[in-house]
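Researcher: We plan to redesign the surface later, but first we want a full-length starting point. Tokens attached.
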């Protein structure tokens, strides 16, 4: 499949221009790789429109931003889930999506972009950083949360940014969807505070060397987390 990509050096050139609202022809900045049928960038057209609408209609603040990210992640995954793995595994593809979703990405991580320091905001647009790059982390969040065609778990935990990024996507729990879903569901039903969550997540992470957690079923994962929770009380 033929698809657009952006390398790291090109991203470093165009990102500051986009941030300064300098007119730029994005199509001319993309490189195309692969052969055969082209990936249609219009796949995310509905997401771009939905993200702009959400920004206009929602209050500004970290809670609104995280909730909207969770809600829109399902739409992103639904749009891209039939894209071939070789495309999804290319960091350059996610740099392209960061550019296409520029308005939303800047809004989502406004504090970093307000600095106008590329070193501070690069992580949110560079596809090499899965837990930080906004469109990539949204895709992964939705892929984990998905049950059939239901993505509601992706936005089910209010103030869930730390849960998803620190305790799922940045660690091996993110490689075990059943376990990650059980973890999120536990937070929905019986929320731990931040002070409780971090040591609990550490205990879970310490199991990996001795237990093949990514083979656990939904029920087994839920029972394991209940047991760990009881041990911490």
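Model: Full-length starting sequence:
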């Amino acid at each position: 499949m033929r698809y657009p990509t952006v390398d790291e050096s090109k991203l470093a050139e165009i990102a500051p221009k986009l941030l300064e609202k300098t007119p730029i022809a994005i199509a001319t900045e993309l490189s195309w790789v692969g052969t055969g049928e082209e990936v249609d960038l219009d796949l995310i057209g509905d997401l771009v429109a939905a993200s702009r609408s959400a920004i206009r209609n929602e209050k500004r603040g970290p809670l609104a931003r995280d909730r909207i990210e969770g809600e829109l992640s399902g739409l992103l995954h639904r749009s891209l889930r039939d894209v071939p793995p070789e495309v999804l595994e290319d960091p350059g593809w996610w740099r392209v999506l960061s550019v296409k979703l520029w308005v939303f990405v800047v809004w989502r991580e406004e504090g970093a972009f307000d600095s106008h320091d590329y070193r501070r905001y690069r992580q949110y647009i560079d596809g090499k950083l899965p837990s930080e790059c906004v469109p990539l982390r949204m895709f992964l969040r939705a892929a984990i949360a998905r049950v059939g065609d239901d993505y509601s778990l992706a936005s089910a935990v209010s103030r869930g940014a730390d849960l998803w990024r620190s305790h799922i996507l940045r660690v091996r729990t993110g490689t075990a969807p059943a376990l990650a879903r059980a973890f999120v569901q536990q937070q929905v039903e019986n929320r731990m505070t931040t002070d409780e969550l971090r040591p609990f997540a550490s205990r879970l992470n310490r199991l990996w060397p001795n237990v093949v957690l990514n083979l656990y079923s939904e029920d087994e994962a839920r029972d394991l987390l209940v047991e760990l929770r009881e041990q911490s009380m």
